[in-house]
Design a protein that fits this description.
Elements lengths: L2 E2 L20 E2 L2 H7 L9 H7 L5 E2 L9 E5 L11 E3 L2 H6 L5 E5 L5 E9 L2 E12 L5 E6 L5 H14 L5 E8 L2 E6 L14 H11 L12 E8 L10 H8 L4 E6 L17 E8 L2 H15 L3
Parallel strand pairs: 1-2
Antiparallel strand pairs: 3-6, 4-5, 4-6, 7-8, 7-10, 8-9, 9-12, 10-11, 12-14, 13-14
Length: 301
């Protein structure tokens, strides 16, 4: 499939749209890095911080003030691996780790944003925020219909300044309006919540260097997560149950987010739990009900 999607439970979003066989669209960071040599620098979180004029540097250099936030300069596995707040020069010295960086601790809303970019010019933008619970887990994410005008403007300016010549989707993670990381790919958890025709527009952006997506009837969407305990071997729910839930009003899609044939420890998950499913919905209450029924079947929650 020319949209290179590593998660088999997400192929459902792309299998009904035709993509030219010689066009490859990344849905994950390794492919995005390999296929964008001119702009792959955005995966360098230290470079992202410096591009915004932040006081940041690699381990081995002393910050001008504490506390700072420490993390790997490049991390393709996500999940906040190796990240921590460092509160003193002594703590930085004893936690020194090659390949890690520090930057100011950011506060405010944590927002994930997808931008459609043509030759460095942003042409479409959509923001999402998560509702965290504990242990790195999220209850659900809201894909907002609203524009977030201040954040939109700052991201548009940064993109024009830094990504001349880039065409494709740009994903950014911001806290309080500051970009903490960027990715040369789209958020593959909820492309259905962007509305009908979005995947076709995505393909045309990469294949035809055009962006044509009306986006005239956008509405809030929700991506609800279901977690179970670690070290437990789960089975997939019956296809009939998933089909029945999908037929309900307000339910957009269901992802069963693990592979039965793999041991639980072979899956990447946050410390707080093992992710079983995601329910994408245009109605939050309908999504919560569908998730509750899946939870009963799995015997969790």
């Amino acid at each position: 499939m020319p949209i290179v999607e590593p998660a088999p439970y997400r192929i459902q979003y792309f299998e009904n749209d035709t993509c030219p066989p010689d066009i490859f669209i990344p849905a994950d960071d390794p492919e995005a890095w390999a296929w964008n040599p001119r702009h792959r620098w955005v995966f360098d979180k230290l470079a992202i911080a410096l591009s915004q004029g932040l006081d940041a540097g690699p381990h081995g250099l002393e910050p001008s003030a504490f506390p700072v936030f420490s993390k790997p300069i490049i991390n393709f596995r996500g999940m906040g691996i190796g990240s921590r707040v460092i509160r003193s020069s002594e703590e930085l010295r004893v936690t020194y780790e090659a390949g890690h960086m520090w930057m100011p601790v950011q506060t405010g809303d944590h927002v994930s944003t997808d931008l459609a970019v043509l030759d460095g010019e942003p042409l479409w933008i959509r923001h999402a925020t998560g509702r965290p619970t504990h242990g790195g887990m999220f209850d659900y994410w809201t894909v907002h219909a609203s524009a977030f005008p201040a954040l939109t403007t700052s991201l548009e300016v940064w993109t024009r300044t830094n990504l001349a010549g880039y065409s494709g989707i740009l994903n950014t993670e911001t806290i309080g309006g500051t970009i903490i990381e960027a990715h040369l790919r789209f958020s593959d958890q909820w492309p259905d919540l962007y509305g009908p025709g979005w995947v076709a527009a995505l393909i045309e952006l990469y294949a035809g260097q055009r962006w044509r997506f009306a986006d005239s009837d956008r509405q809030d969407g929700y991506s609800l997560a279901l977690f179970g305990p670690h070290k437990t071997r789960f089975r997939h729910p019956p296809a009939a149950l998933v089909s029945e839930l999908l037929a309900r009003s307000g339910i957009s899609s269901i992802q069963i987010t693990f592979r039965e044939e793999r041991a639980p420890e072979e899956h990447g998950n946050p410390p707080g739990g093992f992710r079983l499913a995601l329910v994408n919905a245009t109605d939050l209450a309908a999504g919560q009900l569908a998730r509750a029924e899946l939870a009963r079947w799995f015997g969790v929650g």
